[in-house]
Amino acid sequence: MTYCIGMLLGQGLVLLSDSRTNAGLDHINTFRKMTVWEKPGDRVLVLLTAGNLAISQAIVNVLNERAASMEGEPNLLNAPNLFEAAIRVGEAVREVHQRDADALKEFGVEFNASLILAGQIAGEAPRLFQIYSAGNFIEATHDTPYFQIGESKYGKPIIDRVIKPGISLDEAAKCALISMDSTLRSNLSVGLPLDLVFIRRDAMKVDRHVSIDADHPYFAMIRCRWSEALRGAFHDLPNPEW
Amino acid sequence: MTYCIGMLLGQGLVLLSDSRTNAGLDHINTFRKMTVWEKPGDRVLVLLTAGNLAISQAIVNVLNERAASMEGEPNLLNAPNLFEAAIRVGEAVREVHQRDADALKEFGVEFNASLILAGQIAGEAPRLFQIYSAGNFIEATHDTPYFQIGESKYGKPIIDRVIKPGISLDEAAKCALISMDSTLRSNLSVGLPLDLVFIRRDAMKVDRHVSIDADHPYFAMIRCRWSEALRGAFHDLPNPEW
Contact at 8 Å (CB) between B47 and B116? Predict the structure, then answer.
């Protein structure tokens, strides 16, 4: 499994992914789940993937091949807007489905892919989409300004309480890292290193990419102090008197 | 769905269950998920159930019928110890499986049942078991003194950080209620009222049963102050400086 979060804020986008992939507990590997397409000044797109790694990699490959092909072909680098880019990612998902789904089924493997597409294309605001195995997708709104894919439940309570479109990118990153910490603690199939990306509104490029491993001082501080803070908050609440 | 927790502590057992059951979002009902068998002074057993409600109710019915039948038949009221009681619950699960699984399969419904059995039988310490759809089961230990069934992920991080066998029953109840609150907030398919049961070690009876609805003052306080405490803890942590 994996855990990825995308947040859409007034100031821009924050994206966080882990890098654990596994096929049984004796076969745990580290693969990045984040792919970036950038044409500075014109567009920046980030794709986060969860689910079967072979499927995720195949989808990214199809998208890369298209982007490298002739200018005239529809691809992520010439999509006129992010909605159209999401359609093109959905088409790549369907292409891989058509190629692999039957063969996978014969081995009892379900075709599952779950993706987050985020970014900004010149002429419109930053946007955030979640794309499903069927190639269809939904877009984040002011009321639901975030998407999670993969092992999303452990880390959802803190996001539900904190994320509003008005918070800063740094606060959103802090929340994403706390959410990731809760997931790492409760689920073995999510693991370091993490990729954290900031896309500032109208910068049209990745503003900052931080690779976070176990020695990263800020994340180490979060891991230690958030546990303490939770235990402190727990002890501050009175016990029941029945 | 549902969410139930069982905790095994030095002082005894704490059990908490919600009461939401649904078949599609337009058909949400309230059914208790907790069944108690008590022979004061000799034994107390509590069963929590998650999964398909028809299956859960059928299992409880089989167990009740056996308990009401002739003294000589093996049932929960004459099991010599809790391990044997868990075997008898597992047998009931298998009996319902044999009766219903094929018919359910024809309608594309998987046979799923997930149960927690907790209690104490005279002559041994309190024990806690988790029983699976196949009728097999595992027992809680000093290292893992709790089980969750149903929508367990949202509420796991706080339990992972707080529950140790040495904490008091009241502290464990507070932790269970916080865990339930996180689940209620993030998942519509878990709902009030809650059943909270305390079994004090060697009391050989239910020490206290509390039915908790939206007006319950302690739970209302938890809901309000835990959110505040989380947000406070979040704001107390410094933002990243990259």
Answer: yes
In Å, how far is B2's CA from the nearest CA of chain A?
A: 15
Q: How far apart are CA B220 and CA B214, in angstroms?
A: 7
At B69 the pLDDT is: 82
**H or E stretch at B47:** strand B43-51
CB contact under 8 A, B153 and A158: no
Q: HEC profile for B53-120?
A: HHHHHHHHHHHHHHHHCCCCCCCCCCCCCHHHHHHHHHHHHHHHHHHHHHHHHHCCCCCCEEEEEEEE
Q: Which fold has domain A3-236?
A: Glutamine Phosphoribosylpyrophosphate, subunit 1, domain 1 (3.60.20)
Instruction: For residue range B161-218, list pLDDT tens digits in order.
Output: 999 999 999 999 999 999 999 998 888 777 889 999 999 999 999 999 999 998 999 9
Give me the residue spans of the domains in chain A: 3-236
Which residues on chain B are in Cβ contact (under 8 Å) with A197?
none
pTM for the complete prediction? Answer: 0.86
Which residue of B14, B110, B153 is the best one to mutate when testing the A interface, meaning the one whose CB has the most A CBs within 10 A? B153
Helix or strand or coil: residue A134? coil
Architecture field, domain B3-233: 4-Layer Sandwich (3.60)
